[in-house]
Amino acid sequence: MIPTREEMYEALCARHGADLQQKFSEGSVAVCGLGGLGSNIAVSLARAGVGHLLLIDFDRVDISNLNRQQYFPDQLGTYKTEALSHTLRRIAPYCDIAFKTVKLTEENIPDILHGYPLICEAFDRADQKAMLVNTVLEKLPDSVLVSGTGMAGLDSPNTITTKKITKHFYLSGDGCSDSEKGSGLFSARVAVCAAHQATTILRLLAGETEP
Amino acid sequence: MIRINGEERNTAGKTVAELLETDGYNPLKVAVELNENILPKTEYGSTELKDGDTVEIVRFVGGG
């Protein structure tokens, strides 16, 4: 027997405070890319009781993802959107989870992300990160974007920070460690960056605008 | 002087595209904020920097 919606909400209020929990439960966040960053961000937001999540990815779960992404071996070959939605429903059964199995492009981003006040960039490739960030900042001026760049390798986790670039753009990461230049991706360090992004989202929901 | 990623530099008259090239950035892997506003990529070549501008160049690297 899983707890009722009211029991789960009361448990979150007891942990977080009722005022904050109301803000979280009214929150609406789009997570773009469901790899090491996005899957961890989504799990953190669902656990915190964020009310509405949109999950976007075009890819399927691959064995190479299991070192750092929130998937299970029995989910190999399934779409990440479906696999992660399934996991999130186990974590937070009353969270309103929508997903789109689609590749985001300059053309479709305005339509798909329109109306989401908070957007997480959680892509893997540098050119795709830049494409999403540029398109969101140009085309969706009312949204706030939290992006991640630089979390590869095993440099100190203390080099990963969050900066406020403008009032619409926050950037987490160490800014330099590049998986495309041969650094591996390790679950713990990727999760540090994901936790920075997720914490920034929760702070924004709470009304805190400084990183 | 122009403030570029926190550093005062004398690059007035250069375009953003020229600045990115001089500094070794791949224009497909950056976002450029000029005076707190995103600068569309289509304007990199036509936007000349002028004294007092503040430029923030965000470089994206792989991993996620």
- Identify the CATH architecture of chain B: Roll
Order of helices and strands of chain A: HHEHEHEHEHEEEH
What average pLDDT do the residues of chain A reach? 97
The helix-strand sequence of chain B is EEHEEE
- Which strand-content bin applies to the residues of chain A? 15-25%
Q: Supply the CATH architecture of chain A.
A: 3-Layer(aba) Sandwich
The CATH superfamily title of chain A: NAD(P)-binding Rossmann-like Domain
Structural class of chain A: alpha/beta
From the N-terminal CA to the C-terminal CA of chain A, the straight-line distance is 39 Å
The largest sheet of chain A, given as strand count, sense and whether it forms a barrel, is: 7 strands, mixed
Cα-atom Rg of chain B, whole angstroms?
A: 11 Å
CA radius of gyration of chain A is 16 Å
Shape of chain B: globular
Look at the structure and name the CATH superfamily of chain B.
Beta-grasp domain
Number of helices of chain B: 1
Estimate the helix proportion of chain B, in percent. 10-25%
CATH overall fold name of chain A: Rossmann fold
Structure keywords:
heterodimer; A: 211 residues; Rossmann fold; 7 helices; 17% strand; globular; B: 64 residues; mainly beta; Ubiquitin-like (UB roll); 5-stranded mixed β-sheet; 5 strands
Provide a descriptive summary of the structure in words.
The complex is a heterodimer of chains A (211) and B (64). With 211 residues, chain A is α/β, with parallel strands linked by helices. Chain A has a single domain, classed as 3-Layer(aba) Sandwich (Rossmann fold), CATH 3.40.50. Helix content of chain A is 39%, strand content 17%. Chain A is built from seven helices and seven strands. In chain A, strands 3-2-1-4-5-7-6 form a seven-stranded mixed sheet, with helices on both faces. In chain A, strand 4, helix 6 and strand 5 form a beta-alpha-beta unit. In chain A, helix 1 crosses helix 2 and helix 3 packs across helix 7. The model of chain A has no long low-confidence stretch (mean pLDDT 97). With 64 residues, chain B is mostly beta strands. Chain B has a single domain, classed as Ubiquitin-like (UB roll), CATH 3.10.20.30. In chain B, 11% of the residues lie in helices and 30% in strands. Chain B has a five-stranded mixed sheet with strand order 2-1-5-3-4, with no helix packed on it. The longest helix of chain B is centred in the N-terminal third of the chain and has 7 residues. Chain B starts with a strand and ends in a 5-residue tail after the last strand. The mean pLDDT of chain B is 97.
